[in-house]
Specification:
globular; about 130 residues; heme; 7 helices
Length: about 130
């Protein structure tokens, strides 16, 4: 028997990740810097993000099973992403996590875990491109 708990387990499994994603994307859609990077129909993006975060947090490989290797940096290259975008993305996630019933320590851990990828996707410092 596996007694190893993952972040996926700690946030409540697939439904917990879905709750985070559903709290997160309305904030993204309202953010002046982030909204232009996303399609009007956000539902497919939300579903992909739920699958990706589930896998990223140590859960089942939903994303890879359906879409193949995540290659997230490559998937984000077509979009100009500045440090300000990464900051805004993380702030939206921080606010989404604050709406959950997750313990503060877990919220901080999740945000810290997502900080690396958020800044890894930065591909320009030119604010004029946004």
């Amino acid at each position: 028997m596996n007694n190893y708990r993952t972040t996926f387990d700690d946030v409540g499994g697939l439904e917990g990740v879905r709750r985070i994603t559903e709290a997160f994307y309305p904030k993204v859609q309202q953010h002046p810097l982030l909204a232009p990077l996303f399609p009007e129909d956000i539902m497919p993006v939300m579903e992909k993000q739920t699958k990706f975060l589930s896998q990223f947090f140590g859960g089942p490989s939903y994303y890879t099973d359906e879409y193949g290797n995540p290659k997230m940096r490559a998937r984000h290259l077509p979009f100009p992403i500045t440090p300000a975008h990464a900051d805004a993305w993380l702030d939206c996630m921080r606010r989404a996590l604050a709406e959950t019933d997750l313990p503060d320590e877990l919220q901080r851990f999740v945000l810290d875990r997502l900080s690396g990828p958020a800044y890894h996707f930065v591909n320009t410092t030119n604010e004029q491109e946004t």
